[in-house]
Amino acid sequence: MGEPVRIIGAYLSPYVRKVLVCLHLKGIDYEIDPIVPFMGDERFSQLSPLRRIPVLIDDRVTLSDSSVICQYIEDRYPQPALFPSDIVDRARARWLEEFADTRMGEVFIWRLFNEVAIKPFVWGQATDAAVLNKTLTDDIPHVLDYLESQLPAEGFLFGNVGIADIGIATFFRNAAFARFTVDPARWPRTAAFVGRVLSIPAFERLKPFEDKLIRTPPSQHRAALAALGAPLTQDTVGTDTPRRGLMQI
Amino acid sequence: MGEPVRIIGAYLSPYVRKVLVCLHLKGIDYEIDPIVPFMGDERFSQLSPLRRIPVLIDDRVTLSDSSVICQYIEDRYPQPALFPSDIVDRARARWLEEFADTRMGEVFIWRLFNEVAIKPFVWGQATDAAVLNKTLTDDIPHVLDYLESQLPAEGFLFGNVGIADIGIATFFRNAAFARFTVDPARWPRTAAFVGRVLSIPAFERLKPFEDKLIRTPPSQHRAALAALGAPLTQDTVGTDTPRRGLMQI
Questions:
Q1: Beta-carbon count within 10 A of A36 CB
Q2: What is the ipTM of this complex?
Q3: pTM for the predicted model, two decimal places
Q4: Partner of B161 at 20 to 30 A CA spacing, among A49, A104, A107, B202?
């Protein structure tokens, strides 16, 4: 396999986490350059034209967009399969991953996590209480109602754990950072499903890094991760100066 | 194959056009329920949880999201292949389709086409001259600079015409509706590429419908399309009352 896979992107990103969990499940070694997406230099702009994380770099290709990366990982390393073999199940898995990436991304990241974490800690701005309230009372329940209609009472969506389970569950780690947990009385399937998926070892092994970083300023992320033994790259495309990316709010 | 494939979605949508072109290239018959995305009823909300078009319905599955639909069409009807067989080329094709869907969608649809067409004709609102000006002088050139670095001098991106060519070119039909064309002196590869892709028969056969609809109020779309012999469904999930969808601006 030659050089290890290199991932650029923050452990706290749900999209980066999705890719790392897929790599864990496939047994693929990687190094990580744990940059905050707002804090990439000009090389990062070249590698990721939309200034999005994660970026995957290996001996053959440089890719951004977590869905494209996960599909590439599946194509290059087919076992164990993370996409269903049945054509209809595969389409449904892709749809659920897309629903998570766009709608759950909008609600859990750009509204909830942004209001309680990114705005105050990255940009030094106050939380907008009206946005936060609408998110908690309207947008999140709407998403959870839909998930409750789709998720299985037991096990995973399509047999073994796969891309749709991972793509949905990853957002609930960020929700937890914002102190949101699913009410098991109102959404019992979703609450149990999230618990099952997040407790697989491929998610669990990321928790020590995440739990440390959520309490650490971005400028100290590398040092904190090194102390925990994270598989860091030698060099970085990160800077200390936040800038707004094209696709960021 | 049983029932024909059913597509819900407007001929003027770049995402619907992408799916229809794929169906044409695969030689798959379809019927279309040509609703404007803002004008779907409650059944539409059930079929498309994000109230997005297109929706594909066949004898096996109901799907939304154009990328998910195109991949399903490829999986179910593999010939002629619209995704590259090489793993790296396939990943790059998916990335370019994703770039088009998100960044070109944002710039060409939600800024350019929205300002000059959707706002005045659907919502009865004035065009925002400042947004339009920034779109034309800043956002669009940035997108075109990137495409110019990626597109081939001749032919298509990965051999025969495929998903990445289609996914990029479809946005330039909408750009043309907004009277924008690519300056061939500044972006020669892009201008020539767009001309090549849009002139394949799979795009050309949609032009009469599009050219008619761009001059027709939404309430008269069905009648206008029937007069042109479009393959319309009998029933519709459309209504006459626009409402804002979750994912719409």
A1: 21
A2: 0.94
A3: 0.94
A4: A49
